[in-house]
UniProtKB/TrEMBL annotation:
Protein name: Glucosamine-6-phosphate deaminase
InterPro entries per record: GlcN6P_deaminase-like (IPR052960), NagB/RpiA_transferase-like (IPR037171)
SUPFAM superfamilies assigned to the protein according to its UniProt record, in alphabetical order: NagB/RpiA/CoA transferase-like
Recorded superkingdom: Bacteria
């Protein structure tokens, strides 16, 4: 069983590397692509999404993705190309990462509100695609409390997914796969990697982060529970693309995912152990770190 946490010395070392030297370091766990700013990153990613569907359609094979409800800027590019180039999405399967639940573990109303991730995706993604091109309803897979095993079983029947398009949290969450924190039990990396769709309590730091980013740190605005895909679905992927362009908020976790061995303390570090092709797309600001600029010897 995993018992060790990352040491301060390890984290400080990784955070102290100048951004210009990162690609030359030995032992990088992911490929690293640095772009000027968020707009550049998201434009490139939206085009990558469109190109993947076009290529799979050309080959006559389905496209199978895991998608987040944030970040969403890349969807502007993707949707625009779909409508202008008439890209057919009838053979696209989308496993949505997660959905908020209320304090009793029940779904909230589907609406164009922060608390409804399905409503968010309807507004910023599905609702903007021409009907004759759109993803069929039955191929939009949301984790549901009334059929909690459906996504996992369907993913297995489809032979896994092609690409996980993943935002990550400041403490390494992917979807709502957060670090398990309990005095009473612990999980190994291998156990966590086999995690299936489940209901979770959000960690306090995630609630604080989301409330600060969107609601002036009004903690009561953030639902306390969620239903999330586990890593079992996501680790079936051929490729994982991390989309991290939020500046100082993610500077440390980017260093950790580049260098750390797999650890449930930062779940994002588990993905490279199981997915062959993993790449981090980020910005110059996000991949920089203030500790790499500290004056030495004073």
């Amino acid at each position: 069983m995993e018992t060790n946490r990352l040491t301060r010395e390890e984290i400080f070392k990784w955070c102290s590397i100048p951004k210009e030297e990162l690609k030359n370091q030995e032992g990088l766990k992911t490929k690293l692509e640095i772009r000027k700013d968020k707009a550049t990153v998201m434009t490139e990613l939206g085009n990558m999404m469109a190109d993947e569907v076009i290529e799979h359609n050309r080959q006559g094979i389905p496209t199978k993705w895991v998608l987040p409800a944030g970040p969403t800027d890349e969807y502007d590019i993707f949707v625009d190309r779909v409508n202008k180039e008439r890209i057919d999405l009838k053979n696209l399967w989308i496993f949505h990462m997660d959905e908020f639940l209320d304090w009793e573990g029940r779904p909230l109303p589907v609406a164009d509100t922060y608390e409804s991730l399905e409503g968010t995706m309807n507004a910023c993604f599905y609702g903007r695609i021409d009907n004759e091109l759109n993803v069929p309803q039955e191929q939009r897979i949301w984790p549901r409390i009334d059929n909690i095993d459906y996504a996992d079983e369907l993913c297995e029947n489809l032979g896994g997914v092609d690409t996980v398009w993943a935002g990550i949290g400041a403490t390494g969450l992917v979807a709502f796969n957060e670090a398990p924190r309990s005095y009473c039990y612990r999980l190994s990396v291998e156990e966590y990697a086999q995690g299936k769709t489940r209901i979770v309590d959000l960690n306090d730091d995630s609630i604080i982060a989301m409330s600060q980013r969107s609601f002036g740190c009004c903690l009561d605005r953030i639902p306390p529970k969620a239903i999330t895909l586990g890593f079992k679905v996501m680790l079936s992927a051929k490729r994982a693309v991390y989309m991290v362009a939020t500046g100082t908020w993610k500077q440390t976790v980017c260093r950790i995912l580049l260098f750390s061995e797999p650890t449930v303390e930062y779940p994002v570090t588990i993905i490279p152990k199981y997915v062959q092709d993993v790449v981090l797309y980020t910005t110059e600001e996000t991949i920089d770190h203030p500790m790499s600029h500290e004056t030495k010897g004073w």
